[in-house]
Amino acid sequence: MYRIAVLPGDGIGVEIVPEAIKALKAVGEKSGLEFTFTEALIGGAAYDATGHPLPTETLDLCRQSDAILLGAIGGPKWDELPVHLRPEVGSLLPLRKELALFANLRPVMLFPNLLHASTLKREVLEGVDILVVRELTGGLYFGEKSREKLADGGEKATDILSYTTHEIERIVRLAYDAARKRRKQLCSVDKANVIETSRLWRETVTKIATDYPDVETTHMYVDNCSMQLIRNPRQFDVIVTENMFGDILTDEASMLSGSIGMLASASIGGEVGLYEPSHGSAPDIAGQNKANPLATILSAALMLRYSFDREQEAQMIEKAVQMLLDDGYRTPDLVEAGTKVLGTVETGDMVAGNIARL
Ligand code: IPM
Ligand code: MG
Q: Which is catalytic among the residues 25, 66, 77, 251?
């Protein structure tokens, strides 16, 4: 019996999470696995109901669960709140930190029938299969922040960027272990020509590399990496990088798969894994049954794979998504000539139906 904490959050979060639950339930029926789902508030929704974006009950529920399924948080309604109450800084970041989820895995997998949904050329995309390993609990996101008034009437804002050897080592080792199970190439991305934390990062990777002689190690500056990702994405197997660089590069990399609505994510390293799509709460399309639930559904597959070690069941979800695409169904973000538009709910129903038919 697997206990899953369900945190829909804000915006399209409340629409996409139920669709991933449908997929998990269908997997349960098929495989005999049992799941319980317990819902809790997070983000703006939690702020509105309780005055805080990460209520203690939510954190407690997460700690008592075997995995967490999260939708998305934030929206214009909460943008003017004091920073510690904003959904991003007040709920998602402390949740990651409290649960010690230092590793964020974002697999950029291409479904062959979405190749021309991308803005990039088919011949650039064919064969792309990248795993981005993003450090998630350090760096600029968590460094000390301050503001100070200046004599000239302006202000000075500061964000501290720091990394310890320990923080770098654990994420880099995790990335090497992942590379060993794949094509055995690791590209470490930094800005070591300018930034001190990046120099420590590169030195640390270079040392750890000697423990992984079977994995080919390369180093790349982040600006070059952002260019290489669209110039020749096939060159990458595993990319490992710090928090902020990983945030930016994964939005970019998501476009290789045609839509950010396809990019799943797994945050691991602590006692309980957190599974969420890489995209945000998309307030502009919320409540319209237009959101693509596939990133969340594919995140549920990652939950089966990484938290429950159920590779076969994870593949059931991935196959069911492939079937849906093969049948020509697309949410509005991916629709093109010759395909049929499907809403959020109908997409979830169809994926669950496909799992039943496997
Ligand atoms: C992501 C998101 C978050 C991040 C935001 C919502 C704080 O962009 O998971 O990539 O920057 O980590
Ligand atoms: Mg992001």
A: 251
251 given a catalytic annotation: yes
The pLDDT value given to residue 100: 98
Q: What is the mean pLDDT of the chain?
A: 97
Going by C-alpha positions, the residue among 99, 90, 105 that lies closest to residue 59 is 99
Any ligand 1 atom below 6 A from CB of 135:
no
Ligand 1, closest atom to CA 89?
Answer: 7
Helices 222-231 and 243-254 cross at an angle (nearest 10°) of 10
Q: Is the CB of 88 under 6 A from ligand 1?
A: yes
Give the whole-angstrom CA distance, residue 1 versus residue 311: 17
Counting ligand 1 atoms within 8 A of each CB, the residue from 108, 133, 247 with the most, and so the one to mutate, is 247
pLDDT > 90? residue 116: no
Which of 284, 298, 301, 287 is closest to 343 using CA atoms? 287
DSSP β-bridge partners for residue 186: 217, 238
- Nearest residue (by CA) to ligand 1, atom 7, is 88
On the 0-12 / 13-18 / 19+ scale of CB atoms within 10 A, 286 is middle
Name the least confident of 9-23, 111-125, 164-178.
Answer: 111-125
**Which listed residue (2, 141, 176, 306) is catalytic?**
141
Residue 39: in which H helix or E strand, if any?
Answer: strand 35-39
DSSP state of 75: -
pLDDT over 90 at 337, yes or no: no
The percentage of residues in the chain with a pLDDT greater than 90, rounded to a whole number, is 96
Average pLDDT over residues 193-211: 98
Ligand 1 neighbourhood includes 278 CB (under 6 angstroms): yes
Q: How far is it, in rounded angstroms, from Cα 316 to Cα 120?
A: 29
DSSP per residue, 162-208 = ---HHHHHHHHHHHHHHHHTTTSEEEEEE-TTT-HHHHHHHHHHHHH
pLDDT of 266 > 90? The answer is yes
- pLDDT per position as a tens digit, 46-55: 999 999 999 9
Q: Is the pLDDT of residue 336 over 90?
A: no
Domains, the chain = 1-110+258-358 (3.40.718.10), 119-257 (3.40.718.10)
